[in-house]
Amino acid sequence: MSAKYKLVQRKDFSKGAPKDAKKTFAQLVNNGTVSFEEFCNDIAEETALTSADAKGFIDRAARICAKHLKEGRLVQMGELGSFLLAGGSKGADSPDTFDASTMMKKPKVQFIPGKLLQDIRGKVTFERVKEKTEKAPNDDDDDRPVIE
Asked: What is the pTM of this model?
């Protein structure tokens, strides 16, 4: 598996860096989108479910997951992983001055990938995508197609 990346210039925020200093960083490139329809069709091809069954399951799974998250529960979804609400608050000087209605921060839905998804991180290789302005070795000056 190969993850594509490009190089980008960003401001250098490191301590002691000159004011206009920049550094080069790798940024992963999105290699397209898998539509919900395609995702459900792929599930249907590998299971006894129809595409409609897969769509129905995913729709219901999201609703039921939200229900349990609202109740403060961690939701385990097998090899996919787990979902939980994570949140915090601003600090109060004492328990008596803590006001949940104004001090609580909006909670986030946190996803913890399962083992299968965690394992792919160690198996990824990286491939640099050439910028449009970059030339590959042995490129001619003319980038128009040759018609014979």
From this structure: 0.69
